[in-house]
Amino acid sequence: MQTQTCYTYELDDTDRIVEVDEPWLCFAADNDAADLTRERVVGAPVHDFIAGWTLSSHYARLYKSLRHRGAAVTVPFRCDAPDMRRHMELDLLPRNEGRIHCRGRLLRSEPRPRIPLLDRRTRRNGEWLVTCSLCRQMKMPDNNWREVEEALTEPYAEPLSGLPQLSHDLCPDCDRLMQGLIEAG
Ligand SMILES: [Zn+2]
Q1: Smallest Cα–Cα separation from 138: which of 123, 128, 125?
Q2: Cα(55)–Cα(174) distance, rounded to whole angstroms?
Q3: Residue 139 in contact with residue 145, Cβ under 8 Å?
Q4: Which fold has domain 4-112+172-183?
């Protein structure tokens, strides 16, 4: 399948962002992170921009493992907007001096009716729901993980009392995937 490079950024040997391109900044702005300017991003630890402690700690181990073995890996992920599912991949390419070049690619996007839960501007009611940082499935009370449209009884409703806040973790499948990438080679 032909895929399109969306954005690139590069990390130094301490996981700090040393280069970021304009498309990455636009992409972040598209996802409502409008305060991400080049000045704010360059020099900052990449972990500041990874959703959730679990994924961030897996990435820290993955970067270390990549620097050690020098081989590229690809991490599949979703970067959804409230009205769009975006299936993406992130290529991580080790370079000299412990640098890691990161290249985000859009595989495909699917428009969908707007999901207020995923919109940062939506009023929140103080409750919490857990979403997977990589595949964006939601954790159910029975510990299964489902797409947001299946997880909510009324996914398109926006009650005046607000909707829950989202916290980030990894579902068991994505956790296994990251462990596998860390341990490969
Ligand atoms: Zn997942």
Answers
A1: 128
A2: 9
A3: yes
A4: Beta-Lactamase (3.30.450)
Contact yes or no for 67/125 (Cβ under 8 A): no
Q: How far is the CA of 44 from the centre of ligand 1 (A)?
A: 26
Q: Ligand 1 centroid vs 39 CA: distance in angstroms? A: 31
Cα maximum dimension of the chain = 53
d(CA 49, ligand 1 centre) in Å: 18
**How confident is the model over 51-94, as pLDDT tens digits?**
899 999 999 999 999 999 999 999 999 999 999 999 999 999 99
The span from the CA of 176 to the CA of 185, in Å, is 16
Integer-rounded Cα Rg, in Å, for the chain is 17
CA of 148 to the centre of ligand 1 (A): 12
What is the β-pairing status of strands 84-94 and 73-78? antiparallel
Domain boundaries, the chain: 4-112+172-183, 116-167
Q: What share of the chain is helix, strand, coil (3-state, %, to 5)?
A: 30, 35, 35
Band the pLDDT of 28: cuts 50, 70, 90. confident
pTM of the model: 0.91
In the reported structure, the alpha carbon of residue 176 is separated from the centroid of ligand 1 by a whole-number distance in angstroms of 9
| C-alpha dist (Å) from residue 36 to 46, 80, 107, 159 | 12, 18, 24, 30
